[in-house]
Design brief:
CATH architecture of the largest domain: Beta Barrel
Shape: elongated
Number of domains: 4
Number of helices: 8
Strand content: over 45%
CATH class of the largest domain: Mainly Beta
Structural class: mainly beta
Distance between the termini: 78 Å
Strand order of the largest sheet: 10-11-12-13-14-15-16-17-18-19-20-21-22-23-24-25
Length: about 575
Amino acid sequence: MARFAVLLLVVIPAALPAGVIITGVDGELLDNIRIHLQIDNEACDSPNWRIRRFYQQVEQELHHAVEAYGYYSATVVKSMQTDENCWTVMLDVDLGQPVLVRSVAIRLDGPGASGPELEALRMNVPIVIGSVLNHADYEQYKRRFSDTASQLGFFDAKFSVSRIDVYPQEQAADIVLDFNTGPRYQFGSVSFDQSVISADLAERFIDFIPGQNYDVSIIRDLHKAFLETGYFSGVDIRTTPNGAPDFVVDIVINLTAAKHRSYNAGVGFGTDSGPKLRTGYINRRRNTRGHQFEFNASYSPVIAEIGAGYKLPLDNPRKKWLNFDVGYKRENPETSDSQLYKVGAKRLRRLSELWARTLFLDYSFEDYVVGTDAGRTSLLTPGVSWKRSVIDIDARPRQGVSANMRFTGAADVLLSDTSFLQFHAFGKIIRPLWESARVIGRLELGATLKDDVSDLPASVRFFAGGDVSVRGYDYKSLGPTDELGVVTGGNQLLVGSLELDQLVRPGWSVALFVDAGNAFDRFLDNSFAIGIGTGIRWYSPLGPIRFDVAVPLQDSAPDSFRIHITLGPDL
C-alpha cells in the first residue's frame, strides 16, 4: 500500500496555483502592476466568466499601471494555463523606452500669486527636466500647491489648467499648470467654549485681529500656547471658512480643564550630591485669573533646598509672566558650608521661539564658611538673564543647543553688605558626526568685578570640579586656595568639555571625554585642571543615566580616578 502511494505522488502532476506570474519588471513598478490587475485577486474556484473577463482586461490594466511611471510604449505577451482544478496567467512585459519630462510650465494667478510661499513652490520644481515622467510626483507637487494655499487662507484656490501632454513617439512629456489662488480669507470672529479661566484672560491669548490675513501657523501657535500654560488638558480650535461676500474664517475655541493640583515625589542619585529625595506640589489654577502656586523640596547629604513660588500672567500671557518666590538652600561640599535664605521677584518675557529674558530682583541672607573665611552677608541683587534652547526632542538628541547668560550685582549703598558685578554663562551644543555618533561640547565661564573675593559669600564665588564641570575631581574642589591650601573659590571661571558619544546598541552608548578648567582670582593665575575618561549611557524609560570613570591629570589630585553618575536630559 505504501508503494502505491509513492507511485501516485510521482505520476500525478502538481495542481496549478491561482495567480499571475509577471516577468520583465520588478520592484515598485511590479507592485503597482499587481495593484491594478484585478485577476491577481481571484482564486481557483472563481467563476470561469470572471476569469475570462479579467484576462481580457490585462493589457489595459497593465498599461495604466506602467504609464504612471512614464512607460507609454510597453508591450506584453500574455498566456494562461488551466487544468481541471485551477489556472495561472503568465505576463512577459517589455517596458520599452520611458517618456522623459521635456518642459514644466507653471503660472500663478490671483491675489496670492506674488506671495513668497507659492512663488517658492513655483521656482523650486521637484520634477527635473530630462527625468522619467512619474505621475505620483506630479500629483504630489499639485497637492503641495493646494495645501500651501489652504494654509495661507486661499480656500477657493484651484488649478484652472492641470495637464500632462504626452508624446510617446517623441518619448517626451510637457507639464502645464495654471493655479488660481482666489481671494485670501481673513480672520473673523473668535468665540470660546470654556469656563476654565476668565474671559478676559482667554482673550489675551489671541494675538491676531479680525480682518488680518488668515494663516494656519497662527492657529498652531495659539494651540501650543494654550497647552503650555498647564491650565488645560485639551485644546480644540475649530475653523469655519465663510465665502462670499465676506471671505472670513470664524473660530471657536474649546478648552478642557486640566487637574487643578498635582503632586510629585522621587528619588535620585548623583556623585556631586549623593542620594537625593525630592517632592513637589503645583496648583495650576488658583483662580480664573490664571495664578499658579508651586512648592518644591529636595534633600541630599550635600545640597538641601526648599522653595515656593507664585506665578501670574501679565498683559500677554503667551509671553509675559511675573513670579514671586521664597526659598532656603543649604550646601556643604568639602570646600564650603552655606545656608542661604532668599526672597525675590522675576519678570519673565519670551522674546522669540528661541530666546527668553528674565529681569529679577532678589534679597538674600547667607551664613557661610569657606576655608578660613566665615561671615553673614545680606545682598540686594538686581539682574537680567537670557536663556536659549533648541533641541531635537529625543531621549538621545542628535543635535541641539542650550545657553544661559546672567548679569547680576549688588551695591553696599543699596541694602547690601558688599558691592560686586558678575557675569555667568553656560552653553552646551550637540552635533551629529555620523548616523550613530554625536559630539557634545560644553563651555562655562564667569567673571566678577571684585578685588577681594573674601567679602563675597560662598554662593557668589566660582568653583570648578564635579559631574557637570571637570570630571575626575570632586564637586567644587577646584579653585584658588588660601595659605593652608584650602580651596576658597575665585572671581573668574573657565571650564570646557568635549565628548564623543557612539551608539553601540538601541538604548545604549559609550563615550570618550576630556574636561578642562578651573576657577581663578585672576585669569589663568593657576593652571587648568584636566580630566579624561570614558563612560556608558543608558537611555532608560526614566531618562538618560550616565556612568563615567574619569582620571585627573593634575599631579596634586587626591584621587587616581573618580566615578561620576548622573541622571537627566543631555540639554
